[in-house]
Amino acid sequence: MGSFVVNIVTPSGVIYDHEAKFLVASTEAGSLGVLPRHAPLISPLKIDALRIDLVGEKEGTSDWIAVNGGIIEIRDNVVSIIANSAETEEDIDISRAEEAKKRALKKIEQAKTQDNHDIDLSRAEVALTRAINRLNVANKKR
User: Fold this and answer.
1) DSSP strand E in 56-134: where?
2) Residue 123 in 3-state DSSP?
3) Which of 7, 31, 96, 110 would be a feasible disulfide site paired with 17, CB 3.0-4.6 Å?
4) pLDDT exceeds cutoff 50 at 2
5) Cα(81)–Cα(138) distance, integer angstroms
6) What's the predicted TM-score (pTM) here?
């Protein structure tokens, strides 16, 4: 079947660089499955988890990455993801993600019940989506 390289880059540098046999990502146009020798493509990503099915000695296992938007580019059997932030399941601080979720829920509730124009509802909703995504990815490792 073959394999392809997956690399994920954030402003902090390369956070992931492995070979894979399959990848699933959520793009703005819908869910995207990638196999070796995929046609060239560039697409914006949604805030969601990436599933990367591994090859070699880790065959049969998957890595999960929490990606907070960005761009996916597929070219020459390499999948490159450029994101403002992304975390592997091992790097997610669950207690920090839980606190972020609580803060976002509180801000959303305040914005809705108090008609508080000082609170940016859309920013709070994005923060909630990011926190939930991180928690979902972190819980996959258990």
Assistant:
1) 62-75, 78-82, 86-88
2) helix
3) 7
4) yes
5) 20
6) 0.86
Per-residue pLDDT, 119: 65
Helical ranges in 11-93 per DSSP H: none
Greater confidence, 114 or 138? 138
Say yes or no to pLDDT of 115 above 70: no
Alpha-carbon separation of residue 88 from 15, 30, 45, 54, 106 (angstroms)? 8, 22, 16, 14, 27
Residues in CB range of 44: below 8 A, 6 or more apart: 27, 28, 69, 70, 71
Q: Residues 130, 7, 58, CA angle at the centre, nearest 5°?
A: 95
Highest mean pLDDT, choosing among 48-52, 86-90, 113-117, 125-129 = 48-52
| Domains of the chain by start residue, with CATH | 4-89 (2.60.15.10), 94-140 (1.20.5)
Q: Give the CA radius of gyration of the chain.
A: 17
Residue 66: name the closest of 93, 41, 102 by CA.
93
